[in-house]
Design brief:
The structure holds two protein chains of two kinds. Chain A is α/β, with parallel strands linked by helices. Chain A is built from nine helices and 13 strands. Chain A folds into two domains: 216 residues, P-loop containing nucleotide triphosphate hydrolases (Rossmann fold); 63 residues, YebC, transcriptional regulation domain (Alpha-Beta Plaits, 2-Layer Sandwich). By secondary structure, chain B is mainly alpha-helical. In chain B, 67% of the residues lie in helices and 6% in strands. Classes of the chains: A alpha/beta, B mainly alpha.
């Protein structure tokens, strides 16, 4: 029951949206897709749900093409709102749920449970267009999970939500994963990915630039950022072997170093100066740093 | 199949429960009732011309015309009072009409075959009174001329009698007079139903699809039901909505008709020109024609509905629906025009040719069938062409639907159509 993407290429006319993408999502894991707008995330998702067929390569879940899976297998939360604005929440859910193969009763039980969880049971009979963006997103999420899919695909689930709602959704997503659902999601926000995923893939212009376990990716990335505040000039640090770049700010000097060993050397030479060092810290690499390093430009 | 039924039921119920549906149905029913009772209403305000009492002044210049003319006019069915005016006093007569109690004055002059009349009234846009006076004068003239020629009344009556004349068609497929009248009624009804269905329901389908697209529910739906299931769910759902609306309107009209009007007496009038059918005494109901009408209605609906679904899926905003379905509306209006103008001449080449063009077939081929101008194989051929077109259109529409729903740009219609097809092909 793994999601397997093998050498998948998708072209629209001359434009290549996804180029030779391969990845494997193990059952029960949470997989993050990162990338700027137009990187190919949504196209990849649409191939996963069978909306597009790849020009080359194969997308399979449990060995089967998405088109031949039952409607209950996959849950999908599209990037933009995909609900009938004029319909009431419950009506809408019943329609979508029945198309997925559920009975009206099953849908109502499930949806009531979720509405309670998201603290919006009173919106059962509200029209979707009258809901706030955050609440619409909650309803959209319910539409994606009400049939308890094995594979849940969330395209930018947290965009445009306030921190409280982000936490609410994150908790729900984690619980689903703990319950055995395989989840693939995308985000602009590196932090969300860092806090949720074991495995991830960063895409740029249709190709994966970074791919693998978050821990491994961070481990293999040796560069660090060093923040130093001292009461004396520290320009001489520039000449230490392993210092790649130095930015002197009003308060603080930021030093890019080749690896953590260089930090030790810098620490020692600062001690030799005998002056007072108020702040010395080594920053863990962020996904953003890794992205910049791999792609050669800033992410957002 | 089951999913198509869910889409169908959903489309149907959400529309039928909506206030818009209630409102339009009631409006249409209201106009229907109004239309059926139109002559009662006019009469209520105005009164029937033939039941009014008229006062007419007659200015007799010959001196001996007044007596017989007055006798003719007052002896007729209409309630017309005549008064003789003093000779050659036109001004007085005019004043009596304009300011006095008279409705009009008639100036008569001449002897025997030279008798002539001139009708004066404040306005001459009403036809009832002058025609009554004219026929009265005509009778007087006839009597005078007959007297001169020594023809007695019996001979005169014999002269006037019209000849017995009947029509029979020799061609086997041709219709009898009664059948033709019924066919004309059927053709008229079907023309209107197809015309309104395409205009209303076609637009409804197109905007349904466009709504689905602009709300982006498509992306959710498409992973649980195929585009073809969705499209036909919508098409049949909207078709049922149309049928519901027609039946409701028909029912409301029938109830009000039965309640307010003496049914039998009014039936002829209501049908206006179609009354001949009843007047012939043996109203024929042709099951065959009815079935043809049903067949062509279904085919026509399917054809235009698929076209509408296709057009709806290439626009992004609901505001653009009108523009996209414009050409389709033109097609149905054109078909309507051709049929209306060819009703009296169903054998003309333009009718024959256009009856094979699928978009025109449901109306024009039915006109030919109704008028007995089409042989069975011709009908089968046209139906075959239509079915093939519907299948082709369905295939194309399903592709455009699939590709089109993923197309969110604001390009012009034809460009969108091309892109949608391209997207669908790349996909397939």
């Amino acid at each position: 029951m793994a999601l397997r993407i093998e050498n998948v290429t998708k072209r629209f006319g001359k434009k290549i949206a996804v180029d030779q993408l391969s990845m494997l999502v193990e059952p029960g894991e949470m997989f993050g897709m990162l990338g700027a707008n137009g990187a190919g995330k949504t196209t990849t998702f649409r191939m996963m749900i069978g909306l597009f067929e790849p020009n080359d390569g194969e997308v399979t879940w449990d060995g089967q093409a998405p088109q031949s899976l039952s409607a209950r297998t996959i849950g999908y939360l599209p990037e933009e709102r995909g609900l009938y604005p004029k319909l009431k929440v419950m009506e809408q859910m019943i329609y979508l749920g029945r198309l997925r193969g559920l009975s009206k009763k099953e849908v109502m039980a499930e949806v009531n449970m979720w509405l309670e969880r998201f603290n919006i049971p009173h919106y059962r009979k509200a029209k979707v267009e009258n809901l706030s963006k955050g609440n619409q997103q909650k309803v959209q999420f319910i539409a994606a999970v009400l049939h308890r899919p094995d594979l849940l695909i969330l395209d930018e689930p947290f965009s445009g939500l306030d921190p409280i709602n982000v936490d609410l959704l994150k908790t729900a997503v984690k619980e689903l994963r703990d319950g055995g659902t395989t989840i693939v999601f995308s985000s602009h926000d590196m932090e969300h990915v860092e806090s949720l995923c074991e495995n991830l893939c960063i895409m740029d212009e249709g190709t994966p630039v970074v791919h693998g376990k978050l821990k491994d990716i961070k481990r293999t990335y040796e560069k660090r950022k060093l923040h130093v505040r001292a009461d004396f000039p520290i320009d001489f640090l520039e000449h230490i072997d392993g210092v790649l770049d130095m930015t002197v700010g009003a308060q603080e000097t930021t030093i890019d170093i080749r690896d953590e060993g260089v930090a030790e050397a810098i620490f020692a030479s600062l001690q030799d100066q005998g002056g007072y060092v108020r702040h010395f810290s080594v920053e863990e690499p962020t996904l953003h740093d890794i992205f910049v390093e791999k792609v050669g430009r800033s992410y957002v | 199949m089951y999913k198509m039924l869910i889409v169908l039921a959903h489309t149907y119920w959400t529309k039928v429960k909506s206030k818009t549906f209630m409102f339009t149905t009631l409006m249409m029913a209201f106009f229907m009732v109004l239309f059926l009772n139109l002559d009662n209403i006019i009469e209520f305000f105005d009164g029937d011309a033939s039941e009014q009492v008229y006062d007419v002044l007659i200015l007799d210049e010959s001196g001996d015309l007044y007596e017989p003319l007055a006798a003719e006019i007052e002896g007729g069915d209409a309630q017309i009072m005549t008064n003789e005016a003093s000779q050659a006093d036109e001004e007085d007569a005019e004043a009596a009409v304009m300011e006095g109690p008279y409705d009009a004055y008639l100036q008569v002059a001449g002897e025997d075959e030279d008798i002539e009349g001139h009708f004066y009234a404040p306005t001459v846009n009403e036809t009832f009174l002058p025609s009554q006076l004219e026929s009265g004068l005509q009778n007087v003239r006839e009597t005078r001329v007959a007297d001169d020629l020594d023809i007695d009344e019996e001979d005169l009556a014999a002269l006037d009698e019209s000849v017995a004349f009947q029509q029979s068609a020799l061609d086997d497929t041709a219709r009898s007079e009664a059948e033709l009248n019924q066919a004309r009624l059927f053709v008229n009804i079907l023309l209107f139903i197809i015309y309104f269905s395409v205009l209303f329901l076609g637009n409804m389908i197109a905007s349904e699809v466009a709504t689905e697209k602009s709300s982006r529910v498509m992306e959710l739906l498409i992973s649980s039901a195929s585009p073809v299931q969705q499209m036909f769910g919508k098409i049949f759902g909207v078709g049922l909505i149309g049928l519901t609306q027609y039946s409701l309107i028909f029912l409301i009209a029938l109830v009000s008709f039965a309640q307010f009007v003496d049914v039998e007496a009014e039936a002829d009038e209501m049908l206006g020109e179609q009354q001949d059918m009843f007047a012939l005494g043996e109203p024929v109901f042709s099951l065959e024609l009815f079935l043809y009408a049903f067949l062509f209605f279904i085919l026509g609906y399917l054809l235009y509905a698929t076209l509408a679904a296709m057009l709806g899926s290439i626009v992004t905003r609901i505001e653009d629906v009108g523009q996209a379905v414009g050409p389709m509306n033109m097609l149905v209006i054109l078909a309507f025009m051709i049929s209306i103008f060819s009703m009296g001449n169903p054998a003309s080449p333009i009718v024959t040719i256009t009856s094979y063009i699928p978009f025109f077939t449901p109306m024009i081929m039915f006109l030919r069938v109704g008028m007995g101008e089409a042989t069975v194989w011709e009908v089968l051929l046209a139906v075959g062409v239509m079915v093939v077109t519907i299948v082709l259109l369905t295939l194309i529409a399903a592709r455009v639907y699939r590709g089109g729903v993923l197309l969110y740009n604001h390009a012009r219609t034809w460009k969108s159509l091309k892109q949608a097809l391209l997207l669908a092909r790349k996909n397939g």
